[in-house]
């Protein structure tokens, strides 16, 4: 297969993006310091700090190997004419309709999943096990894989079938495809707390007591429409701790990892939840949903241009990947690869926006609880427990971090 100018340009850009991530990883490793930051001297020993350094180094090496493998597999499949071959195979079996498109997606998804499975196994049962985080059993791991694939099939295949039908039969297909995709997204957010999340974890109502009473008092004080307070059995997979709230309306619930409940004090838990409530009160979630919907509209508009059978750019793109027939199902995949560089740029701005929201939610929590100290204490505990990189380099923070470094957050809290 011969690459045209578009294909060559895309390969160069993909390599440069990988190189940028590689440089960011190296800089992040150089930013690791053996000295415990002053802010953490009362929380972490030199041995524990060294353990977090070792964890960061192991994960950095692993991420580089995984990224090299992913890029290599993509380029080999591409240069070997894999996209055109798989499309022809599906058409020879099922014709030119929607079933062939769904089979194309299913085989690509399955192949990608199987190729990434060894990395998931190594990450869970070697790296996380080595540093004492893993509590996932092989049986649970296999069950999670099966449930994830089944859920992807149940939700993804009907959605893809609808999109393929729209792009094959309806005028202004990008608009109707965007509306369908957005509707499904909002529906999933609504049903996730009651139908999807319980497939993977058990949620138990928090029993009455001082902690629950303190959370309810905070919710009333903040005017937060609290639905349910649940404790999630996160410890069956990992010792890491977290908290979040999800859902719309009456399905909104606060979920606390059981590891968080066991490791944090009442005031620290309340501060963490005040931070999450801060996102709600500052309308961050609605803003992100609105931005996601707007971005989706732009993506579907561009997608419509990419898979236009009469468009010269469409022909050039499909030729770059060695695909003879311009079709929606292949176009969806090629567009995802083509748009990945732009998606990386959008991600930089999105992460910067997210970091700003984190500062705002932190400030709200400090105000709601009357002091920044409980949240600072909670952040320190979470960082130590999760072996967080305490002094990351600014470049990876700029590129990839949705949250500011913990020391920066603590400094901002003390100044609030």
Folded structure, characterized:
The protein is mainly alpha-helical. It has one domain (34-200, 282-415). It is 72% helix and 4% strand. It is built from 15 helices and four strands. It has helices at residues 5-30, 46-79, 82-94, 98-130, 138-169, 173-196, 210-222, 258-263, 266-281, 284-306, 312-320, 328-369, 373-385, 394-400, 406-415, and strands at residues 203-205, 228-232, 243-246, 253-257. It has a four-stranded mixed sheet with strand order 1-2-4-3. A hairpin with a 6-residue loop joins β3 and β4 (253-257). It is globular, with a radius of gyration of 24 Å.
Structure described in brief:
The protein is built from 15 helices and four strands. With 416 residues, it is mainly alpha-helical.
What descriptive keywords fit this protein?
single chain; four-stranded mixed β-sheet; 15 helices; 416 residues; 4% strand; mainly alpha
Structural class: mainly alpha
Shape: globular
- Average pLDDT works out at 91
Instruction: Quote the beta fraction.
Output: under 5%
| Radius of gyration, taken over Cα atoms and rounded to an integer in Å | 24 Å
Question: Low-confidence stretches at least 5 residues in length (pLDDT < 50)?
Answer: none
The tally of structural domains comes to 1
Number of strands: 4
The biggest beta sheet is recorded as: 4 strands, mixed
Strand order of the largest sheet: 1-2-4-3
> End-to-end span in angstroms?
60 Å
Quickly count the helices: 15
- Approximately how much helix is present in the residues? over 70%
N to C succession of SSEs: HHHHHHEHEEEHHHHHHHH
């Amino acid at each position: 297969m011969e690459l045209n100018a578009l294909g060559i340009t895309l390969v160069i850009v993909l390599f440069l993006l990988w190189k940028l991530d590689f440089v960011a990883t190296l800089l992040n490793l150089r930013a690791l310091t053996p000295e415990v930051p002053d802010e953490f001297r009362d929380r972490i020993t030199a041995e524990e700090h060294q353990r977090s350094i070792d964890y960061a180094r192991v994960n950095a090496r692993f991420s580089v190997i995984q990224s090299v493998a992913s890029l290599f597999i993509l380029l080999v499949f591409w240069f070997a004419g894999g996209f055109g071959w798989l499309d022809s195979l599906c058409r020879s079996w099922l014709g030119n309709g929607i079933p062939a498109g769904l089979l194309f997606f299913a085989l690509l998804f399955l192949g990608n999943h199987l190729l990434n499975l060894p990395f998931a196994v190594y990450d869970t049962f070697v790296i996380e096990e080595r540093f004492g985080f893993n509590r996932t059993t092989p049986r649970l791991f296999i069950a999670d894989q099966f449930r994830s694939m089944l859920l992807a099939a149940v939700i993804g295949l009907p959605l893809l079938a609808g999109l393929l039908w729209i792009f094959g039969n309806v005028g202004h297909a990008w608009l109707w495809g965007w509306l369908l995709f957005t509707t499904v997204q909002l529906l999933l957010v609504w049903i996730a707390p009651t139908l999807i999340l319980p497939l993977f974890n058990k949620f138990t109502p928090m029993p009455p007591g001082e902690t629950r009473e303190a959370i309810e008092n905070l919710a009333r004080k903040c005017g937060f429409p609290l639905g349910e307070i649940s404790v999630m059995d996160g410890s069956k997979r990992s010792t890491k701790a977290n908290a979040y709230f999800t859902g719309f309306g009456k399905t909104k619930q606060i979920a606390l990892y059981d590891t968080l409940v066991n490791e944090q004090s009442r005031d620290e838990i309340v501060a963490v939840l005040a931070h999450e409530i801060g996102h709600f009160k500052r309308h961050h979630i609605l803003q992100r949903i609105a931005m996601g919907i707007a971005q989706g509209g732009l993506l579907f508009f561009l997608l419509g241009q990419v898979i236009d059978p009469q468009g010269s750019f469409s022909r050039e793109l499909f030729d770059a990947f060695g695909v003879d027939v311009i079709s929606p199902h292949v176009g969806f995949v090629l567009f995802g690869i083509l748009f990945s560089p732009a998606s990386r740029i959008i991600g930089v701005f999105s992460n910067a926006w997210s970091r700003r929201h984190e500062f705002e939610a932190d400030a709200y929590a400090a105000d709601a609880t009357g002091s920044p100290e409980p949240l600072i204490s909670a952040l320190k505990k979470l960082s130590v427990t999760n072996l967080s990189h305490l002094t990351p380099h600014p470049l990876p923070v700029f590129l990839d971090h949705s949250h500011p470094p913990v020391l920066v957050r603590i400094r901002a809290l003390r100044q609030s």
